[in-house]
Design goal:
Blueprint: E1 22-24, E2 27-29, H1 33-40, E3 48-49, E4 52-53, E5 72-77, H2 80-90, E6 94-98, E7 107-111, E8 117-122, E9 138-141, H3 144-156, E10 173-179, E11 185-191, E12 205-210, E13 219-222, E14 227-232, E15 235-240, E16 251-253, E17 258-260, E18 267-269, E19 274-276, E20 288-290, E21 295-299, H4 320-326
Parallel strand pairs: 5-8, 9-11
Antiparallel strand pairs: 1-2, 3-4, 6-7, 7-8, 10-11, 12-21, 13-14, 14-15, 16-17, 17-18, 18-19, 20-21
Bound molecules: FE2/S2 (inorganic) cluster.
């Protein structure tokens, strides 16, 4: 056979009509008939995920039904023993054991509290995932207390703690990036209880100008008070600029008539309802009143949460005759 290549067990490859193959470490592997048959099998219908109910439908248009959880990640390391010690002692992953999978190279299997596996596989020349960049890294989420203990261990290990994303953090998010023994960027993150705080600007009552200056569909940001005025056909809303997910600051996307949170990509329509991303509650509202001159007054000291949009939340300006009458 011309251009013969070894299989993973050192035998020569035979022509396989499917053309399916994989290359690892310079060796081409072609699955045998049994593996092909197993690969094409699909399980019986079930909503159980490893014995757990896997229903995460949130009714908010999520498309996540295709992936229920991360099963495992594989990281190439030069010295399995050294990295095993780092990932268990420093990162506090649970050690399940050595060489437990079909992987032929020496490896160790670790597990997070969430049940995902991290498999460290020996590799003579692991490619660090571009330390010092945001592009390629592994990120682990901890509880706030686990995070505090991890930061203390990092200091004990002599790490200089770096947060590459400091300018993009939402309120209450914490993160540091630490290199593992091979230089892979390991990001560790947590979310503190303050992420759910209701934030207020110190702008007090803001005069947003005459109501008559806003056409239906108009949206205007008041930076000093961190809120948007929106004119709906039902009336006015004064919506907080802070995202209800974790207090990221929203941007208005005029072309889409929506608000976007750049922190985790939550989107809201102009009634403040969520239309995508992780936020579940609509944008919070400030009370609106009108001056005798018909100006919109927004009280930023008061912030009201809501479950849904209701037309009654939109405030109508008083009719011109009523304003004129009350002025006399
Ligand atoms: S803070 Fe997470 S989506 Fe806004």
């Amino acid at each position: 056979m011309a251009d013969e290549e070894p299989t993973k067990d050192g035998k020569q490859t035979e022509e396989v009509p499917t053309g399916i193959s994989a290359t690892y470490g310079g060796t081409t592997w072609v699955p045998d008939a049994f593996q092909l048959e197993m690969g094409y099998k699909v399980p019986e219908p079930s909503d159980l995920l490893h014995g757990r109910q896997a229903d995460r439908s949130d009714g908010a248009g999520s498309r996540q039904e295709w992936i229920e959880a991360l099963s495992h990640i594989v990281i190439g390391v030069r010295d399995v023993e050294r990295s095993e010690e780092w990932y268990t002692n420093f990162l506090q992953l649970d050690l399940l054991g050595r060489d437990l999978t079909a992987e032929e190279r020496p490896h160790t299997v670790l597990r997070t509290n969430g049940g995902e596996l991290v498999i460290l596989v020996e590799d003579e020349n692991p490619v660090p995932l571009r330390p010092g960049t945001m592009g390629m890294h592994h990120s682990f989420a901890l509880t706030p207390n686990q995070y505090r203990r991890m930061v203390q261990r990092a200091r004990d290990y002599g790490y200089q703690l770096v947060n590459l994303r400091a300018v993009r953090m939402a309120h209450g998010e914490y993160e540091v990036t630490i290199p593992d023994p091979d230089g892979h960027s390991i990001e560790v993150t947590t979310t503190g209880p303050e992420a759910a705080e209701i934030l207020r600007s110190d702008a007090g009552v803001v005069d947003c100008g005459p109501a008559s200056a806003y056409k239906v569909g108009a949206v205007k940001l008041f930076v000093e008070g961190n809120f948007f005025i929106v004119r709906l056909k039902e009336g006015f809303l004064a919506m907080s600029q802070w995202c209800t997910h974790r207090n990221g600051l929203l941007a208005y996307q005029k072309a889409h008539w929506q608000f976007l949170c750049p922190f985790h990509q939550a989107t809201y329509n102009c009634r403040g309802e969520t239309t995508g991303g992780p936020a579940t509650l609509p944008l919070r509202l400030h009370p609106i009143s009108f001056s005798l001159e018909g100006h919109i007054l927004v009280d930023t000291d008061e912030v009201n949460s809501r479950e849904h949009f209701e037309p009654a939340q939109a405030v109508q300006p008083p009719r011109r005759e009523a304003v004129a009458a009350s002025a006399h």
